[in-house]
Specification:
Protein name: Trp operon repressor
Main location: cytoplasm
Order of helices and strands: HHHHHH
Shape: globular
Number of strands: 0
Subcellular location: Cytoplasm
Keywords: Cytoplasm, DNA-binding, Repressor, Transcription, Transcription regulation
Family: Belongs to the TrpR family.
Largest sheet: none
Low-confidence stretches: none
C-alpha cells in the first residue's frame, strides 16, 4: 500500500471542529505518536522564540536532545521566507 499524505491532509481540512479532529487523530495516531508530534511542535515553538538552550528545552518539554537537534537543523536549512512562514504558522 502506498501512502497518500494528501488524503490525510484533505481529511484534516474537512473537519473544522476540535472534537472531530481529536477523534480523527486518535484514530490515525497512537498515543506515542500524538505525544511525539506535540513535543516536536513545542520544540519548534521554543526554538523560534529563541529564549532557551537545547538542554533547557529538553528538560522543559521532556524531549531528547536528538529531537531538538533535528528540529534546529531543519530550521537552519530553511530559506528566510520559509522560516517566516513557519514562524507565522506555529507562533501566531
Amino acid at each position: 500500500m502506498r501512502a497518500n499524505w494528501n488524503l490525510v491532509v484533505d481529511k484534516i481540512l474537512t473537519h473544522a471542529n476540535d472534537e472531530d479532529l481529536s477523534v480523527l487523530f486518535q484514530l490515525l495516531l497512537t498515543e506515542e505518536e500524538r505525544s511525539a508530534v506535540s513535543g516536536r511542535l513545542q520544540v519548534f515553538q521554543t526554538l523560534l522564540a529563541g529564549e532557551m538552550s537545547q538542554r533547557q528545552i529538553a528538560t522543559e518539554h521532556q524531549v531528547s536532545i536528538a529531537t531538538i537537534t533535528r528540529c534546529s537543523n531543519y530550521l537552519k536549512n530553511m530559506s528566510p521566507g520559509q522560516r517566516a512562514k513557519v514562524r507565522k504558522l506555529i507562533l501566531d
